[in-house]
């Protein structure tokens, strides 16, 4: 995972965001570096509205994503840590503190990235460290170790 995360793809905010705004904010670094298009961002929101909160990973972590053909130009992952939890789809039983937007150019890389993320996100200590991280460097270190 270390080659996919940079300080430019990690954000921390104390703003109160709605769930759509959180997804858009999280995706912005990938828009900026050309990994995804605006269509991909809107597709993630549409998928959530149609299919429900399926990308709620548990432990207050959401991994929004869509199909590669919906606007992925190249592989990328971005992270948004919100200080004020966001209710995914405005559902109180889906509070999110960490958004991780996943963009993969094909199904194989999609599964590889999800698998790598899962290894980190099943580790309660690492998830707790993500939630308590105060800087981009701290978040980067969690994914690099």
From TrEMBL:
GO terms for molecular function: kinase activity. It is found in: Cytoplasm. Gene3D superfamilies: Mannitol-specific EII, Chain A. Keywords: Cytoplasm, Kinase, Phosphoprotein, Phosphotransferase system, Transferase, Transport. Residues 3-145 form the PTS EIIA type-2 domain. The keyword Mitochondrion does not apply. GO terms for biological process: phosphoenolpyruvate-dependent sugar phosphotransferase system. InterPro entries: Ascorbate-PTS_EIIA_comp, PTrfase/Anion_transptr, PTS_EIIA_type-2_dom. One of its GO terms (cellular component) is cytoplasm. The phosphoenolpyruvate-dependent sugar phosphotransferase system (sugar PTS), a major carbohydrate active transport system, catalyzes the phosphorylation of incoming sugar substrates concomitantly with their translocation across the cell membrane. The enzyme II UlaABC PTS system is involved in ascorbate transport. This is Ascorbate-specific PTS system EIIA component.
